[in-house]
Design goal:
Elements: E1 12-17, H1 41-61, E2 65-70, E3 87-89, E4 94-97, H2 111-119, E5 127-130, H3 143-146, E6 147-150, E7 155-160, H4 166-176, E8 179-184, E9 200-202, E10 206-209, H5 217-229, E11 233-236, H6 239-243, E12 250-253, E13 259-264, H7 265-270, H8 273-282, E14 284-288, H9 291-297, E15 306-307
């Protein structure tokens, strides 16, 4: 079990450049945010590559270290642009690999990327915890999509869904030394929300959440109380704003030590002046248009970023 203290904010992120991006039919059933893009696969890939580059450039301009790897032609991994679902990196040198629901997402797990972070980029990896064995039992936990981690306070928020199961969640919590705050969350039509990071994010001092998606009052209060008790100011967003991926933002720290909140342009445009003012008082907002990625794959900026909390060799 790891218990090392960890900063909430990373200054480096892993991104995966899409090679054969397209709307994944194997994930559509459990992801109500995912559309069915009628464009040919080649057009979807072209659009996604351009949007990926725009987001990468915006992050780098804001002082975030972006370590990007190309996806592979084979096997075909249409959702590889979302690496945070298969891996998380922790300050004590631990790397966690996660069980994925869709079979064609499981081959996104790439040991060569972990090796390259060590060999090419000087990061320290001391331990790999592989939770993927839960797939054999039909138990899934899709990384920091399923988990919204308060790393500093060792709290894991998790909305239970077909991609987030309690057995795998308990295994993570025990081995990583986290307290779990689990709940049920649904969209406006009552369908389970596939990933927790669609409805909430936790920064250093600020938390953004679509609280009305947690319909059970006791669960909703448990989440809000936990956030307040850990010292977070709470910004609530509506269902409309959640649908625009306003919950799918990620707070990072720039090379100069300043807070940066990364989100899509659609998410930013959905926020009202009061909400934006509270976010801007906390951090610099970095946004980029990724409309095609959002509509085709049902994920946004936070899903595209796997924070690297690993230490580097001196």
């Amino acid at each position: 079990m790891t218990t090392a203290l960890e900063s909430q904010l990373a200054s480096a992120v892993l991104m995966i450049m899409p090679v054969r991006f397209e709307s994944n039919p194997h994930t559509a059933e459990s992801n109500s945010f995912q559309g069915r893009n009628p464009d040919p696969a080649e057009k979807q890939q072209e659009d996604a590559a351009a949007e990926f580059a725009g987001l990468r450039d915006a992050l780098e301009a804001a002082g975030i270290e972006v370590i990007a790897f190309d996806d592979t032609e084979e096997p075909h991994t249409p959702d590889a642009i979302f690496p945070n679902n298969w891996v998380s990196f922790h300050a004590d040198g631990t790397v966690v690999l996660y069980p994925m629901e869709a079979p064609n997402r499981r081959t996104e797990r790439r040991p060569d990327i972990i090796d390259a972070l060590v060999d090419w980029h000087g990061f320290q990896v001391r331990n790999i915890i592989d939770l993927s064995g839960h797939e054999a039992d039909g138990q899934f936990l899709e990384g920091t999509g399923s988990l919204v981690l308060d790393r500093s306070n060792r709290v894991a928020y998790a909305g239970v869904s077909s991609r987030t199961h309690l057995d795998a969640l308990g295994d993570f919590a025990q081995r990583m030394g986290y307290e779990v705050v689990a709940f049920d969350a649904v969209d406006r039509d009552g369908a389970p929300i596939y990933h927790t990071n669609v409805l909430m994010n936790v920064g250093e001092a600020l938390a953004v959440i679509c609280a009305e998606a947690i319909q059970r009052e006791d669960q909703r209060e448990a989440v809000l109380t936990s956030l307040r008790d850990s010292g977070h100011e709470i910004v609530e967003i509506s269902f409309d704003q959640m649908d625009a991926f306003a919950g799918n933002m990620l707070e990072l720290r720039s090379a100069s030590g300043e807070r940066v909140i990364a989100m899509s342009q659609q998410a930013r445009d959905s926020l009202d002046e009061s909400q934006l003012a509270r976010l801007v008082a906390n951090a610099t907002i970095v946004s980029a248009p990724i409309n095609r990625i959002e509509s085709s794959a049902g994920g946004s900026v936070r899903c595209m970023l796997a924070e690297i909390h690993l230490n580097k060799n001196e």
